[in-house]
Design goal:
Elements (H helix, E strand, L loop, with lengths): L4 E4 L2 E4 L4 E4 L2 E2 L4 H12 L4 E3 H7 L8 H15 L9 E4 L3 E4 L4 E3 L6 H41 L9 H32 L6 H31 L9 H18 L7 H22 L5 H11 L8 H5 L8 H27 L5
Antiparallel strand pairs: 1-2, 1-8, 2-3, 3-4, 5-7, 6-7
């Protein structure tokens, strides 16, 4: 919609200053409805389709047809219009709406680009920070669940109430929590950079992949250096940049898929889409020679045989003598499912706190 000022039948609409007045008296409209009126007025005499309202007013945020209907109903009430005998907004059934009053455009000097950028920057960074932090929290929640999964299934002996076995479980949970927070932060902030209104789905995927790649690369480098420093040897080819990029891209795709459709189903759709996309990536990584957390833990157990960490019993559930390819694929799918669903679900909950 074009910025500027418009006059029509006693009303003045200043798009840049975000004001609608009737005979110099302010008319109350929320930001979304004012954008809808500005779009109608700027296209005076021309049909504005429902798709265009959704793209330019709601900026890709999924809403129902009822939301647009309520918007038009409110505009008519504030303008003193009648749907049966319209003076301002005419309904074109099944297509959209048309502004039919005579409009006078009042040109104004454009605001400096620096001023416009300064106004938009705080809102962008608030949204980016909130969504990224939610992704980190979701990654941490997934880490706790994954830690419990390996803690109960990967100890060398069945856990007993004794303090030693509880300590083993706590170590698993704490380790996975830290890794989940780091991975969730990298992927979450990457997805948040692209998960903005009006941006195509590729941005979420690219952002998630970039965040996962960076986090995986740095994490692998630090992990290998730490083992070399402490023990004089490294566990080998643990999970790293490639695995992080694939999981991040899957989560970005899941986040975008979760945002499509009616908003009242957004959370469950996001949990499902994020979980399935993450699970698919988690299964694919071991099949193509990579390693998820389970595969990396198995490398550690084999490099340090005296440790209490043994994943062979998980492999036994799938008829394998050790933690073989089937076990790695299945556990990788579980890890991806938990990580994707928790991270996307947390980001969707955070989006609900952002003003529409």
């Amino acid at each position: 919609m074009a910025p500027g000022s418009f006059r029509f039948e006693g009303f003045s609409l200043d798009v840049r200053d975000r004001q609608l007045k009737r005979d110099d008296a302010p008319v109350e409209l929320n930001a979304r409805y004012l954008d809808a009126l500005a779009l109608l007025v700027s296209e005076q005499g021309r049909l504005v389709s429902k798709d265009r309202f959704l793209g330019e007013v709601w900026r890709g945020v999924p809403v129902t047809d009822e939301a647009l209907t309520q918007c038009i109903r409110t505009l008519r009430r504030q303008l003193g219009d009648d749907a049966v005998r319209p003076r301002f907004i005419e309904t074109v059934p099944k297509h959209g709406y048309r502004f039919i009053a005579t409009v006078e455009r009042v040109e104004a000097a454009p605001a400096p680009a620096s001023v416009a950028a300064a106004a938009e920057a705080p809102a962008f960074w608030r949204r980016f920070g909130l969504l990224g932090a939610a992704g980190m929290a979701g990654g941490g929640a997934a880490g706790v669940l994954i830690g419990l999964f390996y803690g109960f299934g990967g100890a060398s002996q069945p856990l007993q109430p004794g303090m030693g076995e509880i300590s083993v479980l706590l170590v698993f949970v704490c380790l996975s929590l830290v890794l989940g927070l780091i991975a969730g932060g990298g992927v979450g902030f990457g997805v948040a950079a692209g998960f903005m209104p009006g941006r195509p789905w590729q941005w979420s995927v690219i952002g998630g992949a970039a965040g996962g790649l960076l986090t995986g690369a740095v994490g692998k480098l630090i992990g290998l250096d730490a083992f070399n420093l402490l023990f004089g040897q490294s566990p080998g080819n643990i999970t790293g940049a490639a695995e992080g990029a694939l999981i991040g891209a899957a989560v970005g795709l899941g986040a975008w898929l979760g945002s499509r459709g009616p908003r009242r189903f957004e959370l469950r759709r996001g949990l499902l889409a994020g979980g399935l996309a993450g699970a698919a990536a988690g299964v694919a990584i071991p099949l193509f020679g990579g390693r998820m957390l389970g595969g990396s833990l198995d490398l550690l157990a084999r490099r340090f045989p005296s440790s209490r960490l043994q994943l062979d019993q998980i492999g036994g559930l799938f008829g394998e003598s050790g933690f073989g390819p089937v076990s790695q694929a299945v556990t990788g799918g579980v890890e991806g499912l938990l990580f994707g669903s928790c991270l996307v679900g947390a980001m969707i909950l955070a989006r609900r706190r952002i003003p529409a």
